[in-house]
Amino acid sequence: MVELDIASTTSKQQRRLKLLFVNLSSVIVIVYIYCRKSIRTDQVRMVVPAAEESDACRVILKAKTRKLVRKRLDFERLPRTLLPSHYEIYIEPDYTTCETYKGITALTITVTDVVKVLKLSAVGLEILEVTYEDEAKKQVLRSVEITVDDENELMTVEFERGLLPGNGTLSILFLGRIQDNMKGFFRTKYSTVEGEERYAFGTHFEPNYARHAFPCLDEPDFKATFDVSLVVPKNRTGLSNMPIVNESPLESNRKNYRILKFETTPVMPTYLLAFVIGEYDILEAITEGGVIIRAFTPPGKKFQGEFGLRVAVKCLEFYTNYFDIPYPLPKLDLVPFSSFSSGYSYKPIFFSFYAVLQFHG
């Protein structure tokens, strides 16, 4: 009986070794094929020169570029010559075409060494102007050349002279295209009660898509705080990680729009940032710990969010007590989109309609 058990065990071990060998062989073949394909797919990239500011909210991205032949580079981390501490981000969509937007990123950084060429993360953006001003006001520098390499998701900025070590503000004026592929700042269609089709706007920055929406240092260890300002029509809702701290009207010829400024976020990586612009009905509840939870639904469908809101309150209370860790933000928003697959609990949680709304009948 013992001999049979030993034989059976040996046979099982042999089968496991054979299966492991087959799996390893398959992985090696797949990696080899992928590397061969990557080598053959080098493409021509573009250089974006610095340009004068234009009416960005009414202009679809133009081909003001000159071409640069550049092969795909091996993966390389961004240099640690710039260390971010705070972002001020301004986003102004073109609500006429719903295709483009104007943006400003003011990035508070620490320069660790004398550097003349800066490298940041950026994809598919048209950079209009870059300036740097140090905290002591000892130098104000403008860029002399700006390169956007979409293949390697890299933006390179060269200044007239080197930036000195210390703290300063890097300001970037840019144009972006509102995406349909759910990378970066994207749009999604919805229908009103009357059947009219409209667009809502949201963000998807995980794992490394923030660079599709605004120039940044888009790596997880480059953590910072964020101030977000959105230009939003008066009949739309604007959301971000934090509550609204200030609302101000635009200039007199655009009375139907206002600027929503949100409170400063905790220190976090770029992929946790989020903002939303859309038309919603709102349901609200408060947990035992005082966290405001809101469920947003399409207009006229508020009843479909009641169940999801009750579940969210119970879940947040349960996990807060279970782990004995309070939820770190003052609010939690549940926002449905007609096409979305996942979210994260440190920002507004995005769902597909079917994941958060309860359909009756």
Summed up:
The protein has helices at residues 2-40, 306-323, 353-356, and strands spanning 44-47, 66-69, 82-93, 100-111, 115-121, 126-134, 140-149, 154-163, 166-177, 184-191, 197-204, 225-233, 237-240, 244-249, 257-262, 275-278, 281-286, 292-297, 331-337, 349-352. With 361 residues, the chain is of the alpha+beta class.
Please give the order of strands in the largest beta sheet: 5-8-7-6-9-4-3-12-15-14
Number of alpha- plus pi-helical segments? 3
Number of strand elements: 20
Question: pLDDT below 50 for ≥5 consecutive residues: which ranges?
Answer: 1-7, 27-69, 341-347, 352-361
**Helical content, roughly?**
10-25%
Mind telling me the C-alpha Rg? 25 Å
* Global geometry: globular
Structure in words:
By secondary structure, this protein is an alpha+beta fold. The chain is built from 3 helices and 20 strands. It has a 10-stranded mixed sheet, with no helix packed on it. β3 and β4 (100-111) form a beta hairpin. Residues 1-7, 27-69, 341-347 and 352-361 have low confidence and may be disordered.
Present the secondary structure layout.
Elements: H1 2-40, E1 44-47, E2 66-69, E3 82-93, E4 100-111, E5 115-121, E6 126-134, E7 140-149, E8 154-163, E9 166-177, E10 184-191, E11 197-204, E12 225-233, E13 237-240, E14 244-249, E15 257-262, E16 275-278, E17 281-286, E18 292-297, H2 306-323, E19 331-337, E20 349-352, H3 353-356
Parallel strand pairs: 3-12, 18-19, 19-20
Antiparallel strand pairs: 1-2, 3-4, 4-9, 5-8, 6-7, 6-9, 7-8, 10-11, 12-15, 13-16, 14-15, 17-18
